[in-house]
Design goal:
The chain has 383 residues and is an alpha/beta fold. The chain folds into three domains: 47 residues; 133 residues, D-Maltodextrin-Binding Protein, domain 2, CATH 3.40.190; 147 residues, D-Maltodextrin-Binding Protein, domain 2, CATH 3.40.190.10. Strands 1, 2, 3, 4, 6, 7, 8, 9 and 12 form a nine-stranded mixed β-sheet that branches. Strand 10 and strand 11 form a beta hairpin. Helix 1 packs antiparallel against helix 2 and helix 12 runs antiparallel to helix 13. It is elongated. The two termini are 19 Å apart.
Length: 383
């Protein structure tokens, strides 16, 4: 109970005692009035206690950014609000939009698949990896179903439009057991600034020198005009579902939800690996030891083409960005509590949505980062 509540309680008790001692001296109507006053004061005590213990219930937290983790964040928001009554909103506007909004102080946290560039290192934003996902090479070829193998070089050739037919010899040579259709390939890609595009183009830059020279790694690519673009992972999935003989890139959960087939991609060890939570965790575990602290620069951090027989080569962390210095104590504490829950209890919801739970090493790194968040110099996380 707060100090203020204690004082009110003591006063109430004193009035009750006085009323009892003077019962014989007070007229009945005055006794009724005294009782009403006592009841009112008791009500104030309980109100203060409720406000003290549930102060975060009226807090609303807002976030925006990457669509890559949107299905998982949406689940977190739903569960957390049901459990705590703290309202959280998250708008999938792409990584670029999320970064812009938090820099302009329009949201409390931002989602991004792309670590901040070094020119934003002095903004006081922290990186909190909140989940792992796989970017898949998805395809809609009715004759094939599952079972297509692709290499980084072949994927780069397709997206640069050097390989334009499904039965091209370069595809056929790595798929000797498949009968490939004589059909033109339609390339579907993102139309908006996208962290998923950054992950995809970073992988292609890593494995194919021609792609690196012509396009590089970026959230936005100057795509060939013959390709077609969709907004967000959902937009690409929608286009692919209705476009036979198409190929595109998506976060794994969008491909599964829309029943779009995914290729097995050759990893650093020369093995063809399908995207899954297990193969994504394998890639992250192999790279966890090199991660920086949350308040250090994350520019250039990636886990693409990681070592390991079981590592899927296009795996990535996705991040929450949040200010180390919070302006409002109550909202800042509610935000830290939500993020702590997200990287602990929230991980239990990852598998069912085809995201990979964070390795323990990354959870420990996040704990250190969250303990560093302050308001007026005071830590906001209470052990």
């Amino acid at each position: 109970m707060s100090e203020e509540a204690n004082k009110v309680t003591a006063d109430v008790r004193g009035r009750i005692a006085a009323a009892q001692n003077d019962r014989g001296k007070i007229k009945p109507m005055k006794l009724v009035i005294a009782g009403a006053i006592v009841a009112l004061l008791i009500g104030v005590v309980f109100a203060l206690q409720v406000l003290n213990s549930h102060g975060d219930e009226n807090v609303t937290l807002s976030g925006a950014g990457a669509t890559f983790p949107f299905p998982l964040i949406s689940k977190w928001v739903q569960v957390y609000e049901n459990d705590t009554s703290v309202r959280v909103s998250y708008e999938g506007v792409g990584s670029s939009g999320g970064i812009s909004r938090i820099v302009d102080d329009l949201v409390d946290f931002a989602g991004t698949d792309v670590p901040l560039a070094t020119d934003k290192d002095d903004l006081g934003l922290l990186h909190i990896p909140e989940t792992l996902g796989a970017v898949v090479c998805a395809y809609n070829v009715p004759e094939l179903g599952n079972g297509l193998n692709l290499t980084g070089d072949v994927i780069a050739g397709i997206f640069m439009l050097d390989i334009t037919n499904w039965n091209d010899p370069e595809i056929a040579s790595i798929n000797p057991g498949l009968t490939l259709p004589d059909e033109p390939i339609t390339v579907v890609r993102r139309a908006d600034g996208s962290g998923t595009t950054f992950i995809w183009s970073s992988y292609l830059s890593k494995v194919n020198g021609t792609w690196m020279e012509l396009y590089g790694a970026s959230k936005t690519i100057d795509w060939p005009t013959e390709t077609i673009g969709g907004t967000g992972n959902g937009g690409v999935a929608g286009l692919m579902s209705t476009t036979p003989y198409s190929i595109g890139y998506l976060e794994l959960s969008y491909a599964v939800e829309n029943e779009i087939d995914c290729a097995a991609i050759q990893n650093l060890e020369g093995l063809f690996v399908l995207p899954s939570t297990e193969s994504t965790v394998a890639a992250a575990t192999a790279s966890a030891a090199i991660l920086p602290a949350g308040d250090e620069s994350w520019n250039g951090v990636e886990i693409l083409n990681a070592h390991g027989d079981n590592s899927y080569p296009i795996a990535s962390f996705t991040y929450i960005l949040v200010y180390k210095e919070q302006a409002d104590n109550q909202k800042g504490k509610a935000l830290v509590d939500f993020l702590w829950w997200m990287v602990h209890d929230g991980q239990a919801y990852s598998d069912n949505l085809y995201y990979a739970p964070l390795p323990s090493e990354v959870v420990e790194l996040n704990e250190e980062t969250l303990r560093s968040i302050v308001c007026d110099g005071e830590p906001l996380y209470n052990e």
